[in-house]
Amino acid sequence: MQRRQSSKTPKQPLQIHHKNQTDLSAWRKGGRIDPEKSVQNHQSPTNQKSDSKQDSLEQALSYFEKVQDHVSLKKNNVLQKHLITVESIALQRGLPPEGFDVLLNVALSGKLADTVNTRLLKSLVPASVIPETSVVSSVSWLCVSKCSGNIQLLFLRWLITMFDFIDHKEQLHALYGFFFSFLQDEKMCPYVCHLLYLLTRKESVKPFRIRRLLDLQAKMGMQSHLQALLSLYKLFCPELVTITLPGKMKTYFKNSEGPWKAAINAVRRRNQENSPVLQPLFLGTAQPQSRKRKWNTQLIIPASSTNKNNLEEDREKNRVDLYSMNESFPVEQLQTFSQLLQNIHHLEFPSQMGSVLTNPLLLHYMNCTKDESIYLRLYYWMGQTLQEECTWCVADNNQYEEEFKDFLETVYKTECFLQEGFSSCEEFLYKSLPLWDGFCCRSQILRLVSWIPLSSFSEMKSHLYDPLAQLFFTSSLYFKCSVLESLKELLQNWLNWHVIHLDSESDSQVHSLNTTLSGLVNVVAELIHFVGWISTVALRLENNPTFLLYFILDFYETVCDMYLRYNLPLLIMPPAGVFYPALLSMDSVSLNQLCYIMYRYRTNLVAAKENELSKTKILQFKFSSQTYQEYNQYIIAMVGCLWTSSAFQKDIHPQGLRMDDELLKKTTVQEFKTSFNIVYHPAMMGYAVLFLQQAWPDDTTFNFSLIKGKKWNWYLEYLYAQGLKGLKVFIESSINRVSQASHSKAGNVQV
Q1: Contact 58/32 with Cβ under 8 angstroms?
Q2: What's the DSSP call for residue 393?
Q3: What is the DSSP letter of 584?
Q4: Are 671 and 703 in contact (CB under 8 A)?
Q5: Using 50, 70 and 90 to split pLDDT, how confident is the model at 536?
Q6: Cα–Cα separations (whole angstroms), residue 370 to 350, 375, 516, 562
Q7: What does the DSSP 8-state code read for residue 463?
Q8: Which of 563, 630, 574 minimizes the C-alpha distance to 603?
Q9: Does this model's pTM top 0.85?
Q10: What is the DSSP letter of 130?
Q11: What pLDDT, on a 0 to 100 scale, did the predictor assign at position 15?
Q12: φ and ψ at 455, to 5 degrees?
């Protein structure tokens, strides 16, 4: 970024003043009320150390402001003393806004050695905000050849890292062309692209800039930072950027915050430990903040003015202008839904995309607008944050697990609000699940899994199913149930997406095969097969617990109704390793669930068969004969168990209950044929005992053979009255009881 000077006379930096700019001398002399001091006056003597540090900082700033000639660090005790003061205070509590103008100017003016300038730039950690005027003033030093290229590079990295701390952005936006002109420097180009990415608006996209980026790409090759800027340009003006760019999200930019990350974290932690009165002054907000700049400082939309009264006056004065079509509406003034509707066409999103996550009005706007640049910016910011702050992917982040949990929870709530998953979250899960221990942030991670967008099976198998299965089989029963619940919600979200987009015009203009009907059917089928497999293994590992069986059957309650409820031409029966443990379960809840599931399977299959036979329209998908065959095998087994007491003779499923009578006699069970009907079934015997007590209160022998004929019908009504609705609809739909005679005949089966 070195520029040739047109004159030997040293060029002075541009002096840009702002009405809200605080004069440093007035701040030091007491001409301005310092909020920190006003609070400190009410503090106990134990906090008087803060006053001495404040005085030391004022002396250091005064020294650096008066530096005129080149000063060496060696054997200069005064410079060393003030430099250490700035570094220690910046690390402990951050620097006040008034100090940035002085320190930036001296660091970029070349008056000090690069060693000192580097240390100063690395010390520029804000306690609250950074004045925009200080940044603009420091940028003007780049026009002269005063500081070295390394210092310029470090300044750019600092500017990118602290971008969200800058109180305003308008003057920085005005310098867009200035920053763009430095793309020719190959060393600076990645960081300049990153800064331009943060500053780009639709009006920033110009044909000559696109041509310049394409020339650079032809010269340097396919660089990720150039692709990022071109992608953003293409979203704003697709008619100007005609080249094909990679659609897959990836990490576009290098991490720029390394030198300041530890200092920012330390300041945030110490400010949290301060009293509630001090927190608003140090952090610039009345809400307790986290050490993380990445999300917590961005979740609050920055106000357009530091003076609230001025903001209210400007709002009243310029109310007409704010609603003008020629001006953008400031998001910090967006308070009501009616304001959103009136200004939806000229609403400009904040530079801090993290602030969108907790603003329902902006999320409503995202749902309504088709501006993909908003999603691109949000995905980039979120992807960077997830990658850098993951507590099990990044060393020394374990102590911040609670903060990371809060962030993941916020992302999940945003996905629920928008009713769609973020591709950046999908990539984060694919990268982090192989390293995950299944314990850290468990609830949040599994919730994010439920919003993974539709992907090809090959990607999901290697990146999701395989690592999830390893954790599933080696973890606790509770974890297994949590995974099954998450996968059920994932299936429901996919099916809801299909219903919403079924009749939309955009469905015919899909961007990938994964969002076509055939792609959806394949991906959903693989998910169901995966759940069936892990459920079968889990039931064997855990010895068929009722708690686990409930979550498995809950998943299949969604599967059995996909055709009628979600209009998806797909039905998959549960595997035998799930069906038979449910049929022979000791718990009536599981048996009742299974009966309801089989009833819904029958309803869906009958509707599908009727549609095939009617031939009113050409069907793209038809259920295979294997699906009908599996259903019939299961129905024969269920009716044989619960009703006709012939399961051991008539069950034809390869993994079913069919056994020879000779083998059954060796069990020494006297009435083995009736062992699993609705009277003797282990899950139903408790109801049979209660029924006998009510029907024959004086009989204490519990003679179950009395439940036959009319008593059989009374027993059925008793079961229905106990809330076994699944059993009721199954018997009424799957057992032929055309007449009372046949009903009585069925009831007279020897029990």
Answers
A1: no
A2: T
A3: T
A4: no
A5: very high
A6: 17, 9, 21, 30
A7: I
A8: 563
A9: no
A10: B
A11: 42
A12: -140, 170
